[in-house]
């Protein structure tokens, strides 16, 4: 048996891009309620229905028959002892194609942590921004990049 034939029988690496859903710092937006109501099987089904290809590659967010379903991790920030984003990074490096929902208010100073983790795993970070009454009573500030770093507007 040739090496090529033998290697064909090995499991293929899961090269799908991972996701990190995070909540920009909007206290009282119902993030924990939303996170506790997420059903993994429904989220997986919706993800598989979406055509979220990357650079014309074949549906990098879909589950192919030779790949198992993605792992869904919902990590509540209040339950983590120690550095939250360090734990997120460790878990994402172990399973880069997972769908990770960060149940934690993420202040602007931590947005770069989320982006760094995603760049390490070739993942995508998705901010979850509520609409409706929550936004009518919330002021959102943003960071603007300058030559020497970031500053608040």
UniProtKB/TrEMBL annotation:
Protein name: Uncharacterized protein
Lineage: Eukaryota, Sar, Stramenopiles, Ochrophyta, Bacillariophyta
Source species of the chain: Eucampia antarctica
Record-linked InterPro entries: tRNA_ligase_1
Record GO biological process: tRNA splicing, via endonucleolytic cleavage and ligation
Any one GO molecular-function label of the UniProt entry: RNA ligase (ATP) activity
């Amino acid at each position: 048996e040739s090496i090529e034939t033998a290697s064909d029988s090995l499991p293929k690496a899961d090269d799908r891009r991972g996701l990190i859903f995070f909540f920009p710092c909007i206290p009282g937006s119902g993030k924990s309620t939303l996170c506790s109501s997420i059903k993994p099987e429904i989220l997986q089904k919706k993800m598989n229905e979406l055509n979220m290809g990357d650079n014309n590659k074949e549906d990098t967010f879909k589950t192919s028959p030779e790949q198992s379903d993605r792992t869904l991790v919902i990590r509540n920030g209040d339950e983590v002892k120690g550095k939250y984003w360090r734990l997120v990074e460790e878990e994402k490096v172990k399973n880069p194609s997972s769908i990770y929902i960060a149940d934690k208010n993420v202040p602007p100073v931590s947005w770069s942590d989320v982006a760094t983790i995603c760049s390490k795993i070739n993942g995508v970070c998705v901010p979850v921004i509520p609409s409706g009454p929550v936004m009518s009573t919330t002021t959102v500030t943003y960071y603007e990049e300058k030559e020497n770093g970031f500053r608040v507007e």
